Amino acid sequence: MIMKLLIMMHIICARLEMNDIRNICESPFSISENILINQSGPLNPLRTYIMHKSSYVYNKRLFSQGIDTDYSMKKGAKSTDSEHFYIYTRNPENDKAYKFSNARCRYSPSYLYYYHKTMIYMFPCENNNLSIESCKNDSFTRFLRAHCNKVDSLYLLASLLLLSEGIDVPISIEKNIHNGERILLKFDFDEFSFIDLPLWLESIVPKETNQKMHDTNGVSEEIDLYIHQENIMHEVGRIMVYQKEAEQIVLFFKSLCREPFLSDLSNCREPSGRQEFNMGYFLESPRLLIQSYIFEYIDNEKQYKLFLDSVYMLLQKMLYYMKSSEQHKQLIKRTINCCFIDVKDLYNGPQRNHVIDICALKYKIDRSSILP
Questions:
Q1: Which residue, 51, 145, 230, 245, is the most exposed by fewest CB within 10 angstroms?
Q2: pLDDT tens digits, 24-72
Q3: How far apart are alpha carbons 185 and 183 in whole angstroms?
């Protein structure tokens, strides 16, 4: 029960507010005083704020035909001969991804399977709410929070976002040392490791307790025994748990830069108009996954700007120092232009500052609401 309450607190307290979003969109981040995020690009938190309010990920996660949902329907104790009552139980944390066999689909069956599997890892949705929190010892969010004091966790999110854009970030799962497996991001030209996160974490697990029942001589003793048993604190032990979900998520995003998933990535590009939007292909995009996850995970302006620094630094390193093909260099340049703009272009350029309009709309909606 305590764990569930803590999860609910994270759900309620997390996410950026509109004031934070406006400051992020209109003020330079720490690594450069002349650079802002491009409000039409993937780093704009206003995009994911609108997607969250529109429940795109929530509906996709809980009602997708690509997910084998875990639920039960049982007849209730209140049922009579004339009336029937049923208890419906939904357990999204136990959902599984379907293995598709239809080759005529827009995407390859393998891509759809691993896409939905990754979605379940990133959004376990315990308690039937759109949530990244989980009680599991090897959940992806637990892995990130265990390293929240290190900038490596933000570089990991930045790497996954760039991989979703098709940029081949040299991130890898290092398995040369037994029990020393780790997520590693290190460039050949630099001794510094941007990411060096061990995949083994210490976890607390309950132990089975064998309580012997004693004979009782009266009702009072039975009551005392019941109270004693209800208040027994289960013994716990500490073990090292391998973070399988973190590994699987990294491997999925890494596979997007190679065939056959490279073709699938181009098929789920962002819609260019209303007709493409209504077709809903963007709902199968890894961009939707990682952008929505980042919005759920980063809950304050300072941390989000550190995340922007991480994205900018990786792009600059790969553009000017990493050896790669000219085609890959051009993709990096396009991504930089898509993610960032010069500060003078915020109001003078052709791109409109949409955050002002959304803030004004939200203010009118809040003022017109009957209840706060």
A1: 230
A2: 888 887 666 788 888 889 999 999 999 998 999 999 999 998 999 998 8
A3: 7
Question: Counting every residue, how long is the chain?
Answer: 372
- DSSP strand E in the chain: where? 35-37, 67-68, 71-75, 86-90, 96-97, 171-174, 182-186, 193-198, 200-206, 236-242, 340-342
CA distance 153 to 186: 14
Task: Show the tokens assigned to 205.
Answer: 């697990």
- For 283-320, what is the HEC assignment? HHCHHHHHHHHHHHHCCCHHHHHHHHHHHHHHHHHHHH
- Report the alpha-carbon distance of residue 315 to residue 194 in Å, rounded: 13
One-letter amino acid identity for 325? S
Question: Which residue, chain included where needed, has tokens 């630099």?
Answer: 190
Confidence of residue 185 (pLDDT cuts 50, 70, 90): very high
Q: Which residues of 154-183 are buried (b: 16+ CB within 10 A; e: fewer)?
A: bbbbbbbbbbbbbbbbebeeeeeeeeebbb
pTM for this predicted structure: 0.83
Question: How many helical (H) and strand (E) elements, i.e. helices and strands, does the chain have?
Answer: 16, 11
Strand partners, 116: none
Cis omega (within 30 of 0) for bond into 286? no
3-state secondary structure of 260: coil
Instruction: Tell me which H or E stretch contains 275.
Output: helix 274-279
297 within 8 A of 284, measured Cβ to Cβ = no
DSSP 173: E
3-class SS of residue 359: helix
What long-range pairs does 331-337 form, CB within 8 A, spacing at least 24?
A: 331/165, 331/166, 331/167, 332/167, 335/162, 335/165, 335/167, 337/38
Tokens 């704020």, residue?
49
Q: Where are the domains of the chain?
A: 2-210+217-368
Q: What is the DSSP string of 105-167?
A: SSS-HHHHHHHHHHHHHH---GGGS--S--S-TT-HHHHHHHTTTSTHHHHHHHHHHHHHTT-
- Cα-based torsion angle of the residue sequence 252, 254, 260, 261 in order, rounded to the nearest 10 degrees: 60
